[in-house]
Specification:
Layout (H helix, E strand, L loop, with lengths): L5 E6 L2 E13 L3 H12 L4 E4 L16 E3 L7 H11 L6 H20 L14 E3 L9 E4 L2 H14 L3 E3 L2 E8 L5 E7 L4 E12 L19 H9 L3 E2 L6 E6 L7 H6 L3 E3 L6 H4 L8 H13 L5 E4 L5 H10 L1 H9 L9 E9 L6 E2 L13 E3 L7 H4 L8 H22 L10 H11 L10 H16 L1 H4 L4 H19 L6 H26 L22 E7 L11 E7 L17
Parallel strand pairs: 2-3, 2-10, 3-7, 10-17
Antiparallel strand pairs: 1-2, 4-6, 5-6, 8-9, 9-10, 11-16, 11-18, 12-15, 13-14, 14-15, 18-19
The structure holds flavin-adenine dinucleotide (FAD).
Flavin-adenine dinucleotide binds next to helix 1, strand 4, strand 8 and helix 12.
């Protein structure tokens, strides 16, 4: 392969930058940056492409700042027992054990290298215990997410990776002679980008349906759509329907941490809503969401969060640990610890649910040779099952899965020979489809795109359709989705910014379709997935994961249906919980 990193040229009147690399990482959150660091350290020419500024966009830079930190002397069995209860029979204990252990090792390495984590006066990482996400036993480490994301960007650059910021990948395809073409554009400069890579790590985050929480504006399932385009499948999409309580004054999160400190969610008549539904503290997020949404539906809203039971010492401690949120709340001028204010169920989609691109092992191997998935883009069922990993496990997963996927991609790239091909037929087709919606003379489409965004959100986010699920409601929403897709494909956009929004909508609609079809296939209620016609857990679906595969080419103009089939999570062909890249040099 040519040594040229980047070549500037033109294609049909558009500026075109072509780049060649061994490992391409799509996404610049925790997972992407760790993957880049790992691959670059193997001597691979590594390129990170990020929609915004890698290390400052996506969800990672806005995470609550809590990560699991289990040490060898901890009672790991207690942790596992509690965890497997909350993941409702769908996590893999060996996968959980490996990720927890690798995360401790990785965090140790990163803190030695100067990572900004909370430290003791002696400079050692400071551990805390706090019940969170329904668990009593969570030894964890606090970190300022913005600073950690910035630090990880520097780590990736120090290892030799290059970063292409403000660039959106729109199409990804494996080529017949090996490797991939990834096509997209630099949105500020309006230049097309075509990247030839031997291996690709999808780390473009989950699908939040542009949810309410900070950082979620940027993750609309493009990693999932790119995986699908390249031939990968989805897993666990029925668990993408998560809602985390958020403060109405300032988009925030961490309700479960505040509840653990003594906060109580109360309905209009002052009842503790968890008590009312027989849910014990600390409640897992899906049961808190259930209680909130049920109360609102029954007309007993709004829900206030009563934090007057939180001691001043606990409050001070919380404000130190969650300083980003505390600062935002302070600016509202309302002391929420003294005056209970309204909290709302904020949709988080797959960020707190577990669905995503199907991987066959912990190294992020997908069904497409050379394509790996990490972080929120990858299905996290092995780790969180039907429950949620938010507030401690998701960050651990993003770091560790990114690291392993980076190593695995490097290993794959080392065995792959590629030659630069210029603009071949495949690339020509990918460039052509990328710019197809773009017509610079078209009338401003912002309104249509806004309407389509709101319409799709209404289908996916409305709890009446997608939380209190019935086949009829899902099918009705699914039919409306076809109309949205058709409208999107008949919409032209007049600038590169709106072209980016066009692709976000495309990805979001594909994720919605897969979610609906998976939800129709799982005939039970478990974790985030709730069916009114099957209100109980079905023992026959214990340890059963659902794989969703499109029945037609997703790049065609018809929204594909998905066939959904069960796989048993203990079967080796379903998932290798021991295959990871821990030992790679
Ligand atoms: C409000 C909030 C608080 C949270 N707090 C915690 C916590 O305290 N502890 C915890 O464990 N978990 C927490 N989580 C979850 C955790 O932050 C995420 O699971 C994790 O950060 C995901 O990292 P990621 O790298 O996979 O994705 P992201 O950080 O979302 O990164 C995705 C990247 O992909 C880029 N991208 C997207 N599409 C494209 C494209 N087409 N082309 C190029 N680039 C693209 C984005 O710009 C971004 O750089 C929280 C989540 C939320 C929403």
């Amino acid at each position: 392969m040519t040594r040229h990193w980047r070549q500037a040229g033109t294609w049909h009147g558009y500026s075109l930058d072509q780049a060649f690399c061994d490992v391409l990482i799509i996404g610049g959150g925790f997972a992407g940056l760790l993957a880049a660091r790992a691959a670059a350290r193997q001597g691979m020419r590594t390129l990170v492409v990020s929609k915004g500024f890698a290390g400052a966009d996506g969800v990672s830079a806005f995470a609550g700042g809590v990560v699991l930190y289990l040490l060898p002397e901890d009672d790991r069995e207690a942790f596992q027992i509690e965890h497997s209860r909350l993941s409702e029979g769908l996590s893999h204990p060996e996968a959980v054990r490996r990720v927890a252990e690798a995360n401790t090792q990785l965090l140790g390495e990163l803190t030695d290298a100067g990572a900004p984590v909370e430290r003791t006066p002696e400079g050692r990482p400071r551990r805390r215990w706090l019940p969170a996400a329904g668990r009593r036993y969570v030894p964890r480490l606090g970190f300022p997410s913005t600073e950690l994301a910035r630090f990880l960007r520097q780590e990736a650059l120090r290892a030799g990776a290059r970063v292409l910021d403000q660039s959106i990948i729109t199409r990804l395809q494996r080529t017949p002679n090996g490797g991939f073409w990834a096509v997209g554009f630099r949105r500020q400069e309006g230049r097309l980008v075509a990247i030839r890579a031997k291996a690709v790590v999808l780390a473009a985050g989950g699908c939040s349906w542009r949810g309410a929480h900070m950082g979620q504006h940027n993750v609309l399932g493009e990693g999932l759509a790119l995986g699908l385009d390249a031939g990968a499948r989805f897993l666990g999409m029925e668990f993408c329907t998560s809602y985390l309580a958020t403060c109405s004054l300032f988009d925030t999160h961490g309700q479960d941490v505040l509840a653990a400190l003594g906060g109580r969610l109360r309905n209009r008549v002052g009842e503790d809503i968890l008590e009312r539904h027989g849910i014990e503290h600390p409640a897992p997020p899906h049961l808190t969401a259930f209680a909130m949404l049920t109360e609102l539906r029954a007309g007993r809203g709004p829900i206030h969060f009563d934090l007057r039971g939180v001691s001043s010492a606990a409050r001070e401690d919380w404000e130190t640990q969650f300083h980003l949120v505390a600062r935002g709340l302070h600016r509202t001028g309302v002391d929420i610890f003294e005056h209970p204010v309204v909290w709302l169920p904020g949709f988080t989609g797959s960020i707190a649910g577990g669905g995503g691109v199907r991987t066959l092992d912990l190294a992020g191997t997908t069904e497409v040779p050379g394509l790996f998935a990490a972080g929120d883009a990858a299905a996290r069922l092995a780790l969180v099952g039907a429950g949620s990993g938010i507030t401690f496990l998701n960050v651990a997963w993003a770091l560790v899965s990114g690291h392993w996927a980076g190593l695995a991609a490097a290993r794959h790239a080392a065995g792959e020979e590629l030659s630069a091909t210029g603009v071949d037929e495949l690339l020509h087709g990918l460039l052509e489809t990328t710019v197809r919606p773009l017509c610079e003379l078209a009338p401003a489409p912002a309104e249509t795109l806004d309407q389509l965004l709101r319409h799709t959100q209404m289908l996916a986010v409305d709890p009446e359709r997608n939380f209190f699920r019935t086949p009829e409601r899902l099918q009705e929403a699914d039919a409306q989705l076809d109309a949205c897709w058709e409208r999107l494909h008949s919409t032209t956009v007049n600038d590169w910014h709106n072209l980016g929004r066009w692709y976000e909508l495309r990805a979001m609609m594909l994720a919605t379709r897969a979610m609906f079809h998976s939800a129709l296939a799982r005939r039970e209620t478990r974790g985030w997935h709730r069916r009114l016609d099957y209100p109980e857990r079905d023992p026959a679906l214990e340890k059963i994961w659902l794989v969703a595969e499109p029945t037609s080419d997703p790049s065609e103009e018809r929204l594909p249906d998905f066939t959904v089939r069960p796989v048993e999570l203990d079967e080796p062909e379903a998932f290798h919980a021991t295959a990871c890249e821990e030992g790679a040099a």
